[in-house]
Fold:
Amino acid sequence: MTLFAYPQRSAFGRVIPKTKVYEYAGASTALKGLFVKQVDQMTWSHKLAPETTNILASKTVQEIQIFTVTLKTGELKEDILRCMDKAIPSPIIFELAYDGKIKPVACYKRPNEADSAKWVTSGYFEGAWQPADAPRKALPPVTDLSILYAELLGSLIPYPAKQGETLQQRVERAEEIGKRQKEVEKAQARLEKEKQFNRKVEMNAKIRTLEDEIERLKQCKN
Structure:
């Protein structure tokens, strides 16, 4: 995963008070405690919009926000990111910063088809920790912000896109892979404890079926 270089004129550089996030997202007392424990500072670092990128807005993506979240210990619970996504009505790419390193994290975020005032979010995808001064890649030459968003988020999804696959379809496929991988892990844990031979045979067959499904889903061919 290569970090992206954002246009200089898209730089925003505004520190976000935690209290504002609490207010807009309706954070619980426990979640506020997590913010205090894990987050040192949140900065709205860049705003990717038509006027800052010369890239047209689309119906679903008017702007893309880049947030830098400086951590206290290197650990961040997903609940914090989800709270921030709830507070900001726009797709967000997070860059977590800790001990001289940066890691990009984001979920797929789109307007609710039934109520455009609400947003639908997927699970989170993340890149690897990299040195903060690592070379950054220029933004791809695209025609609108929805395509740019697909490029930015797609760089975090570990499985290549299929030909003609939309971003939403790619995200759903990645989540399905994750779901089956968890099923395999649970089945393997149960298998280790199982004593009956017949049950072991059945469980091994189930695991092989799940692994075959995972491999099929990973294939980038249609």
User: Anything to note?
Assistant: The chain has a mean pLDDT of 92. Residues 4-156 form one domain.
